[in-house]
Each structure stands twice: as structure tokens, then as C-alpha cells.
């Protein structure tokens, strides 16, 4: 079995157990967005600054590995024409459910983001990519694909795991792993994930995550840090995530 399929199976189980990133927005949240009261997140706690967004009316937005019915309904309420790509069918089902409930159209695509994206060059004005590339081994090819499918001047908003979580044990009390965390190359790390049904996950460096966007052709416009939102690292104020706003040159 490919590791991407292992991850889809793990995420499906997490959703059945109440995983927060698999719970779609309710009707009231959608109605508030229609009225101009909204936020979305790319990382656990900090909302994306509203100034990061262009006027979304009529804009083509790709939710990249963004299934779950959380970001796309909000952006649709703001006037965007949304496509959501994910590899876990249950996550895509959540977006279908919200679209049917709220009577809007969304394009739903099941695809593996570690492969070339199934879209023409210059298809989108904005890509919204919540934390998810921790589930793929190589991220530079993904950044290059994002650059390709964006129109000139298009924006990429990405939530990124900075790797700290993979260095610590589950109790976040001590460092137990060297980095990079790559279970395909380290059987002990794979065993750690298997014990708790955490799929197959990978740490990525600043070089891969941020420099990689620059290498793909993007200009970094803004960024911020975030914590886990709970647990010892959060209590100590240790950032474990980044979010970046990047732009494809005109």
C-alpha cells in the first residue's frame, strides 16, 4: 500500500472519532460569512489576516488538501468560485454535504498532491493550503505545481508544520527523535506512528517550506507563527507552525 493510501485510511478513522479538522462548518457559520462576519485558519489557532485576501468575488480558488467543509464554504460565501482537492474521500464528502445544504456549487476533486495537480496552467487566482504537506515526503514539487496552476499575480496561502512536534514525544516533555522525521527511512519512527494510528507523516525544514516556495518562483509577502493550541509546547509559547502568504509575479 502506498503511504498516501495509509494516510487516507488513518484520516478516515480520525474523522469517525471526531477529528476537529474533519468537522464541517454549521449553517450559522455560513450565514455569518454571508453577512461579512468570518475567519478561516491555516494553522491551529490564528485566523488568517483578512488583508491577505483579494476581493474574492468571481475569483477562482483552489482548496489544496483542504477538504473537511471548513475553508471552502466561507470563501464561497465571500463570492469565490471554489475547487477543493483532497485524497481522503470522507473529507471531500464533507464539502459536498455543506454545498448541498447551502445550495452552492463546488468542484470536488480527489487527487494526490504529491503528484502533478490535475489542472491547467494558470487556473486559479488563489490557493488555500491548510497544514497538510506533513503527509507527503517531498514538498518542492508541490510548490512548483502551485506556481504553475496560479495565474500571474495569484496568491498562495499555506499552513506549515515547522517540525518541532516530530522531535518531541507524545507528552511533549522531552526530545525523542532526530530530524528530519521520515518514517519511510526510519523504522523506529514508523513504529511510533503505527502505535497510535497516525498514518505516515514527515517533518520539513524551513529550507523546504519557505525557501522552497522562493525556489519555485514565489515572492514571500507575509508570514506568522502559531502554536498547537493545547499541550505543553503551547503552554510554553513554543511555535510549532508557520503560515505564509506568497505571490506569483505578475
From TrEMBL:
Top-down, what is the taxonomic lineage of the species of origin?
Answer: Bacteria, Bacillati, Actinomycetota, Actinomycetes, Bifidobacteriales
Its recorded name reads Class I SAM-dependent methyltransferase
Span-the-membrane segments of this chain are: none
Q: Which domain of life is it from?
A: Bacteria
Q: Does the keyword Amino-acid biosynthesis apply?
A: no
Domain Methyltransferase type: from-to ranges: 63-157
Tell me the Gene Ontology biological-process terms attached to this UniProt entry: methylation
GO molecular function terms listed in the Swiss-Prot or TrEMBL record: methyltransferase activity
Which controlled-vocabulary keywords does the entry list?
A: Methyltransferase, Transferase
